[in-house]
Amino acid sequence: MSEFSTFVQLGFHHIADPKAYDHLLFIITLCAVYQLTEWKKILVLITAFTIGHSLTLALSTLDIFRLPSALVEVLIPITILLTAMHNVWAKKPDGSLFSKAVSVNYMLAMSFGLIHGMGFANFFRSLMGEEGSIIWPLFSFNVGIELGQLMIVSFFFTTLAAMAQVFKIQHRDWNLFISGAGAGVSMVLILNGLLA
To answer: Is residue 142 part of a domain?
Structure first.
């Protein structure tokens, strides 16, 4: 198996791992405000998140910037809580791919990706060992993470479509339910992190 496919698989399994539920919860909460017809916005949003965590993965692996893991474990659920609150209170983005409201969502996703990248950093550093260049492994790992995120998003919107069809759930109610669940779980994670 090539180095590329090895790191793609590792990235994919890392994001799709049920033990990484904080990252899964963030992706789902991030998407809750959107409908499937807004798939272009969702793709840009997920890519913005990937760019953010790619940057901190690189900085952390190169020992340029690191945060204590205990702090990262509190910051990640804070990003989920803030995203859930933003979903409920922020103005609904209009149809434009690069409207002001949508651009704010992209910046939030990228900024929060910086924090989530720290959550991936220890795992990625352990994979690297004494490797020389990180460019190809980092690229491959992020391709895997992106593919995993796209799988999560696809599953999320398939579930949304089924719920809307079978139970006639309105998108506003779906957003409130997912955002509320994201906020509730994130508050438990924040408290656990602070008390640990």
So the answer is: yes
Q: What is the pLDDT of residues 150-163, one digit of tens each?
A: 999 999 999 988 88
Mind listing the pLDDT tens digit for each residue in 114-149?
Answer: 998 888 887 787 777 665 678 888 889 889 989 999
DSSP letters of 22-73? HHHHHHHHHHTT--GGGHHHHHHHHHHHHHHHHHHHHHHHTTS----HHHHH
Kindly report the pTM of this predicted structure: 0.88
Closest by CA position to 105, among listed 89, 86, 122: 86
Identify the domain containing residue 109 by its residue range: 3-14+25-195
Does residue 153 lie within any of the structural domains? Answer: yes
In a domain, 19, yes or no: no
Distance between CA atoms of residues 34 and 143, nearest Å: 23
**CA distance to 9, 37, 43, 78, 132, per residue, from 151 (Å):** 13, 17, 12, 24, 31
- Whether 20 is in a domain gets the answer no
